[in-house]
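Re: Re: ligand-bound prediction request (bumping)

Still looking for help on this. To restate: I need the protein modeled with zinc ion bound, output as structure tokens. Inputs repeated here so nobody has to scroll up.
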Amino acid sequence: MERIPDGPREMWVIKKAREFIKATGICSLPVDPAEVARRCGWRVFTVKEVARLTGLTRWEILSAGQESDVFYCNRKYCIVYDELSYYPRARYSIGHEVGHIVLGHLEQFDKTCLLRNNNLTALEYWVLEREAEIFAAELLMPLPILRALGRMMPELIKPEVIMKMCHVSLTTASIRCNEINRSFALDDLSDDDWMQQQFGTYLQVWGNFVREFKVFEAHREIAVARNDELDISL
Ligand SMILES: [Zn+2]
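Reply:
Sorry for the wait, this slipped through. Here it is.
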């Protein structure tokens, strides 16, 4: 058993998320975290399903403000999420719980091995929560893939586009846009090669779309220019 770290292990968490993407063969966006979790043998339930199975109330299953949770029962991980929450938020919550499992939060630390957070300090709780958030961000919006798309067409790195592409909230997408631009500035291109290879077909489809779009734009500009000439001659 280990001690909970003093701060979030950002780089390590990103590495773990990318290893998870590699191991599970995720190769396109949007990532479906529930489907990936089920493929790993973990159960994913809605609060409604748990209520029906156990007779507990929604309030007893998830406390106020909580959108998801993860349990270890009958030697299986069970993720529970609030199906009534905003769809992109629910997806992010499942990704967050997958993060807790993959990062070993439920097994690795003596304070969390019994699964409940009752004996965590506020700082320890924050560290584990933050790590799960970093994991979810990389799982749903992998930087190496978004960087590849940004290189094809910088206009794709906009919150509205990332929101639709990754099925995340606009706020989450805005934060990610800043991180993508920062990673370009830092020239941090680790893991780009293998991940872009794994997402090869997906990136190829985007590549074709971008090429066709550029041809269309070029034709449109020519047409506009001709019209302008026409206006002048008139
Ligand atoms: Zn959490």
